[in-house]
């Protein structure tokens, strides 16, 4: 059993949430519909994150960051997602890309690049998936060949969040034919030859670009290798264990944002001379939504607390998979119910719940599909 005890938020964390909630209401949510409509990256919301120093929140203090706990980061991801999922990805994506550097990178890489990320001068993407190596990442074919102190990388990566915006890419490439110990990680500057091949047209998170990137003979100095040669697969899995809980937080935020909109609507919308929220059928649906959200939030915070404690008992893989899987399933179910709460209006772009339903779907897919999460959990159960 875990020694990580159930907890409630501290007074400081509650105040942090309140400040973020107001920040999102003032500077993020008003842009969400237009970001979705235009399908363009919003520098306005990114600059808002930068002005609040949220670009520094997730990073060690010695490199210019705030040194916030993963629980604090989950609170931020949740509140941002409640207003605009694409903006929450602006907050989360560089942390995903830089986690390998934080945990396995050299002092040179940390001191050179982390301060830039914290100041919002650089952004980083995570280059793991390939057209034939998504859930089965060990089947990747992108290859890195060493010649002295320089590696030459050739290959294609797909589903790259923030592609074309990021100036840094953490790239995983095959350095030998061994399935798991033949992969190595590198930090690659976009200007060295990373090409954006194809921007995807997506169901949701339209303000966050997703693309195929290509590396044709890109030269990377050995100083930009992350960890040891052959350690890349372990680094990738270590990273996803620590990023999945914040995807769970994002899902919780989407669900909570949709429920908040729905509750306000049900208190104002009248039929047969009374608010529709007085109908027991809708009351019970809303109660079920609230219970599921709170249960998902508890799983997310527990996984984050385990990570903050250093995962002393090896529980994080299972806890993170549970948090991400359950929370994203909840987000899909709750947002679908919220469209129903608003009836015909819920199906229009006049209200944000249809956007939230579309955005929720991706949380069941990226950073490991929920089928993969269930495989992780079942293996931890010894099956």
CATH superfamily of the largest domain: Butyryl-CoA Dehydrogenase, subunit A, domain 3
Q: Helical proportion?
A: 40-55%
The dominant shape is globular
Mean pLDDT, as a whole number? 97
**SSE class:** alpha+beta
Gap from first CA to last CA: 19 Å
Strand portion, in percent?
15-25%
Identify the strand order in the major beta sheet. 1-4-5-8
Radius of gyration: 21 Å
How many helices does DSSP assign?
A: 10
What pattern of helices and strands is seen along the backbone?
HHHHHEEEEEEEEHEEHHHH
Low-confidence stretches: none
CATH class of the largest domain: Mainly Alpha
CATH architecture of the largest domain: Up-down Bundle
Total E-strand runs: 10
* Count of distinct structural domains: 3
Quaternary form: single chain
What does the largest sheet look like? Answer: 4 strands, mixed
If you had to describe this structure to a student in words, what would you say it looks like?
The chain is of the alpha+beta class and 383 residues long. The protein has three domains: 9-117, Acyl-CoA dehydrogenase/oxidase, N-terminal domain (Butyryl-Coa Dehydrogenase, subunit A, domain 1); 122-230, Butyryl-CoA Dehydrogenase, subunit A, domain 2; 233-379, Butyryl-CoA Dehydrogenase, subunit A, domain 3. The protein has ten helices and ten strands. It has helices spanning 11-38, 43-51, 70-83, 85-104, 107-118, 232-268, 280-308, 316-341, 353-363, 370-380, and strands spanning 124-127, 143-147, 150-161, 168-174, 183-189, 194-199, 210-221, 225-226, 270-271, 274-275. The strands form three sheets. It has a four-stranded mixed sheet. The protein has a four-stranded antiparallel sheet with strand order 2-3-7-6, with no helix packed on it. Strands 9-10 form a two-stranded antiparallel ribbon. α4 (85-104) packs antiparallel against α6, α6 runs parallel beside α8 (316-341) and α7 runs antiparallel to α8. The longest helix is centred in the middle third of the chain and has 37 residues, at 232-268. Residues 126-218 form the Acyl-CoA oxidase/dehydrogenase middle domain. Residues 230-381 form the Acyl-CoA dehydrogenase/oxidase C-terminal domain. Keywords: FAD, Flavoprotein, Oxidoreductase. Residues 10-121 form the Acyl-CoA dehydrogenase/oxidase N-terminal domain.
